[in-house]
Amino acid sequence: MGWGREMPVMTGGLDAEGDEEFSRIKEVAVVALSDGLRSVEEVERMQEIFARNHDEHERLVREDAAACSEERALMLDDGTLWEYVTVHDEYVRIIGCKTDTVTLEIPATIEDKPVAELAVDACSYLESVCEIICSPQIEKIGNCAFRACTKLERLVLPRNVETYDSSWVRGCRKLSELTLPGMLARVTSSIFDEGQLGTLVIGFATYDFAPGLFAQGKLESIRIDDENPYITTDGKAIFAHEGTHLRVLALSCERYAVPDGCQVIEKKAFANRSELYEVDLPDAITTIEDYAFSYSGLESFTSPRDLRTIGERAFFRCRKLAQVTLDEGLVSIGDDAFTGTGIETLRVPATLETLGNSIAADTKLSFSGDDAGFSIAAGGILEIDREGGLYRNTPEGKHFVHLLDDKAREYTVQPGTIEIEPHAFAHHAHVTKVMLPEGLLRIGGAAFRDCHELVIADFPSTLEEVGDEAFLDTSLSRAFIPRNLRRLGNTALITHGAHNGDEAPSLTSIGVEEGNERFYSVPGLLIERHDDGSHVVVYADGTESVRIPEDVTVIDPYAFGGARHLRELFLSDRIRRVGMRGLSLDCFVEHFHIDLDEPHEGHACFDFYFPDAPRSVHEIQLAFNLSSSVDLARIFKHYDSAIVNMHEFDKQASTAGDDFDVYGQAKLAIERLSDPILMSSTNKIMLTQVLTKNLEEVCEAIARHDDRSLIDELIELDVLNKDNLLDVIDHIGKLQDAAMTGYLLEIKRRMFQRSAVDFDL
């Protein structure tokens, strides 16, 4: 059987196919490299790790082989043959079994030594066995230990095992009763991977279950070990904390009465139970947790007397839920609690203090007008106006909580409101205009996030604070910063196009009221002062020429995101940090000017005029979009690449436009090669090749522009030389360009030291 080969699975090493798996992983790494998913260095590190793991596996194999006895066999009176080895002469590992019995009991001892392990496939492919009972002493079970026992109906796993692996019973299609390992702490959905479980026995150490676990199966009975101190069952549901918490409904049923004494319905306890249409809850229930009844078949709900909290999406997508009665005492309802239900009316008690966002989206429930189906009892801290706006009354003033009417296009916030709470308008699909009152002090984080249609929300003069992402992904067209504003959160004014890049940023106008000590504006930019230097907050798309002030050291995330109209940008290398997509330019910028804090090779600044060609936009994006600073080397790299790819020389015919492209490309390439600052060796080779491989066409374009200075520079660069000059003269001569031909002949005479008379004329 090759025992030394199979053993490492039992001890936690690689399985019997470890070598093959190692080779496969190496192949995956190579594919990842070829697909551009990993760098060479990453793949090399991966391979080093795999190699170390493989070496460790081989070491464990050798050590285990040395610890194991020779293979032995034991024949029992019922004809069962057990194949095994002893390990360290202390315990037995079963490596194989042959039997014709219906019930197989794995022995507790062999040779007076405890049976502690089952190897890979130890009890697999037993065609007659219907029941397997493991000895409690077993502590380790290898992969596929019981697989393909096609008649197996009942399996009792060991008391002292801490894990469950569905590979153990792979191919056991008739498995209907399973006793889980006694020390298994958490049960997952893998117990339903094989067979059609009807009976489940849970061990003494289990206390946790994957959410929604039992909705995937069709259990008919469930039992829990009498020694389990954590959970109990009434035969249908599982409870924790001495019965006060209903953890999960384990069995399918149409009606269920929660026992008296239960106080909490835990997360997803009844989730996905589409057959369940009625649940009786005792008055002692205080909490219904998130998703507790989501996607169930519940038809009505009446809150228990002591209920205080309904969690997020507690009744989400309960399509048959038509009647909901909420009694006094309820304090909190979470986001989307009744979204996707069948309710048309909902009365909220005055005791409610927290009402989640979109509590009843995708329903027939209306929140505004005279016929609104939603109402809040008078006398509490929450109130709703006729337009579907929800407010919270505080001693300091009103807080706007949510716009519950998801169809509203315009909304005016009530006078006396001092705060727009976080997420108050977030994700509203239709609102285009929000009027904010004087006296408003704060706009909370993400208050208007993802309101894609929102165009207008003018800041009142009293506004002091705007939270993070407050207007992120809106279509806000203008922003005027009032005098009192002292905080503008991260990406608060980054509009939809700037963030996602699908459309041009909507923000086109930015201003700052005189007297604001925190913010100032220059044409096209909003700047925020910081102790360590100013930050560019956002660019107003539509301003074609932008000069970033000298005091700016940081460009905030998405500040120039999605810019479409920028044509000229003045920067400096004093900018030490560029946030994510801070310079994400999605347009052709004709001119970049970069001032240097200190001269570099005699230059106090650099001007980049990217060629006006489709490739340039891509190179601009690569030069600026992914950089975390104003990286001159990176900019030069992609500037050179744009020049190299400016013109395609393999076109069938040339036009006047092509000639111009060739001339422009030659001029830029010569300029860079004449002053190769921060030029990589690769780019130098590519630029030189553009000129040398296409020299005749390049010289023809130069001749059409009568630019003799470029001819001189080609000679200085040794691109035009004794080896190719005659061919160029011949080519230009055929164009009947006497002036340029004469100039080239003069160069020929100088280069070859000919006499004044040249008979080539």
Describe the protein in words:
There is one protein chain. With 761 residues, this protein is an alpha/beta fold. Among the domains are: 3-66; 68-151, Ribonuclease Inhibitor (Leucine-rich repeat, LRR (right-handed beta-alpha superhelix), Alpha-Beta Horseshoe), CATH 3.80.10; 530-644, no CATH class; 656-752. The chain contains twelve helices and 48 strands.
Task: Write out key terms for the chains shown.
761 residues, alpha/beta, Leucine-rich repeat, LRR (right-handed beta-alpha superhelix), seven-stranded mixed β-sheet, disordered N terminus, disordered C terminus
Please identify the structural class as seen in this structure: alpha/beta
Query: How large is the radius of gyration?
Result: 38 Å
Number of helices: 12
Q: Give the N-terminus to C-terminus distance in angstroms.
A: 93 Å
Q: Approximately how much beta-strand content do the residues carry?
A: 15-25%
Strand line-up in the sheet with most strands: 15-16-17-19-21-23-25-27
Helical amount among residues, as a percent range?
Answer: 10-25%
As an assembly, this protein is single chain
Low-confidence stretches: 1-18, 651-657, 755-761
Shape: flat
| Overall average residue pLDDT | 89
Number of strands: 48
Question: In this structure, how is the largest beta sheet organized?
Answer: 8 strands, mixed
Please describe the topology of this protein:
Blueprint: H1 3-6, H2 18-34, H3 40-67, E1 72-75, E2 81-87, E3 91-98, E4 103-105, E5 109-110, E6 113-118, E7 131-133, E8 140-141, E9 154-156, E10 177-179, E11 186-187, E12 199-202, E13 208-209, E14 221-224, E15 231-233, E16 237-240, E17 245-249, E18 255-257, E19 264-265, E20 278-280, E21 287-288, E22 300-302, E23 309-310, E24 323-325, E25 332-333, E26 346-348, E27 354-355, E28 374-376, E29 382-384, E30 389-394, E31 397-403, E32 410-412, E33 417-420, E34 433-435, E35 442-443, E36 465-466, E37 478-481, E38 487-488, H4 496-500, E39 509-512, E40 519-522, E41 525-528, E42 534-539, E43 545-547, E44 552-555, E45 568-572, E46 577-578, E47 591-600, E48 603-608, H5 614-624, H6 632-644, H7 656-674, H8 681-692, H9 695-704, H10 708-716, H11 725-733, H12 738-752
Parallel strand pairs: 3-6, 4-7, 6-8, 7-9, 9-10, 10-12, 11-13, 12-14, 17-19, 18-20, 19-21, 21-23, 22-24, 23-25, 25-27, 26-28, 31-33, 32-34, 33-35, 35-36, 36-38, 37-39, 42-44, 43-45, 44-46, 45-47
Antiparallel strand pairs: 1-2, 2-3, 5-6, 15-16, 16-17, 29-30, 30-31, 40-41, 41-42, 47-48
Helix pairs in contact: 2-3, 5-6, 6-8, 7-8, 7-9, 9-11, 11-12
